[in-house]
Amino acid sequence: MKPRLEALRSPGSRGLFGALGALAAVATVQQQLLLHLPPRLERLSTAPASSGPAALQARFSRPITAESLQQGSHLEPALEHRWLGRGDNLLLSLSDGQRLTQPLQLDLTGRDGRGLALPPSRWLWDPRPRVMAVVPEGDGEQLQLRHHDGSWSAISPVWPSIPVVIPLGNGSGVAAASRETSGQLRLWTIALQQRNLAPAERGLASVQAAAPQPLGEEPVTFAHLSSNRLGELLVQSGDLDASGTRAELIAPRRDGTPQGSRSRLRWQATGPMLLLPGGGAVVVPDSEGLHLETLPPRQPRHQTLPGSRDLSSFCPQAGRALLLRHWPDFRRSLELVEPGQAPRQLWLGPEALVASACSRGGDRSWALLVEGRGQPELSLLVLDRQGRELRRRRLGGWELEPGTGLYYDPSSEQLLAALRPLSPINEPPPPAQPVLIDAVSLALTPLPLAVSQVHWLPPG
Q1: pLDDT of the residue at 29
Q2: Burial class of residue 60 (count of CB atoms within 10 Å of its CB; 0-12, 13-18, 19+)
């Protein structure tokens, strides 16, 4: 025991303990200084909005009270909003039912738990999506974007045709298939740089498109594309001489741009596979029904919904979707599916249901119906979550461009569709147009441009 005590009393040991004590004292002083420094805004980013037009996620250097943010911050125009959460990560959520017609200005300030003020900052934010369309151009087709001032600009070269296109769910780009003169498809991604949230002194900016990048070395015979809000891309493709299809999941790069790591998916489907908007799972159709499969690296989990059903559209809230069910007597029904519940029938009828969309968790659903033969008639139906009819409008003189859908934007309370004016049977059909539809009144606003497909490009 004595040698050990002597060692602890040696000059070297005393020096070591002194150094450690000095370091501890410095750390204590630094900690006290940090506690007296004002809190900082470390990050402000867009967030998925499940219950309103748009949302922002704010991360601070230390916990900030939601009450102080609610009292000290304000929006211009003065839209109703709430700060949600606690700690150093809080969510700014715009209240439901408000329409956005211009960029927003956010003046941000608040206080932490010690009463220290967050330095004020001013931000510009435009959460409105843009219309993206496949437009005939010369002897081919081109991808174009409609800006908020109503002008259009090209984001792709002119290809012979563009039969498949989707925006990436995080707004970082577009995935498309161009058809070659041989009939084969060439797959591409186009990275898009958006600036829809920025400090006021920096300002917002228009979308900038990079050069198209090939998704593979060889062309394919057929392809289907799906994306989610994480920016992941699911590519189903194949050739006539191959058995079945290949399914590959492509993650974004670390900077959010397209074409990062790739992983092969093991499932074989009888139709298009669709990624869940929030990520983590994929819907796989086969002859037995619809299967929900988790994606790696999550633990494998399998859920099946039997019956003759197709996935019609996803709702903004996680786990909610609209299903199209086919009955033996050739009727169709629209069903709302929610986590842990059996599908709820919203509508049943003999008409063809060609497209649908829904808000929030299915609070409202819109369905495009076609009835009649020879000169079929298009109708737009609005339902609540119990299946009660809220409104119906006959869209006389219009038909839906085949292979396209119906898309809802909560920020403007508008639906988007590619509608084609009806023509006499003995005349060639005119081209389709992008048509904006008021989600409440169902009033139509056609845009004067020939298109073959339309989508909303999410704000990045």
Answers
A1: 47
A2: buried
Q: Where are the beta strands (DSSP E) in 196-252?
A: 197-199, 205-209, 213-214, 222-227, 233-238, 246-250
Domains of the chain: 41-125 (2.60.40), 159-307 (no CATH)
Q: How many CB atoms lie within 10 A of CB 238?
A: 16
Q: CA–CA separation, 442 vs 89, rounded Å?
A: 38
Q: Indicate the pTM of the whole model.
A: 0.89
- The string of pLDDT tens digits covering residues 400-431 is 999 999 999 999 999 999 999 988 778 888 99
- Mean pLDDT rounded to a whole number for the chain: 91
- Residue with tokens 């025991």, as numbered in its chain: 1
Residue 151, CA distances (Å) to 113, 148, 407, 410 in order: 48, 7, 21, 22
Q: For the ranges 142-146, 171-175, 254-258, 292-296, which has the lowest average pLDDT?
A: 254-258
- Provide CB contacts within 8 A for 284, sequence distance 6+: 267, 269, 273, 290, 291, 292, 293
C-alpha 312/C-alpha 356 separation (Å) is 6
Is-contact 413 397, C-beta < 8 A? no
Residues 318, 167, 393, CA angle at the centre, nearest 5°?
Answer: 70
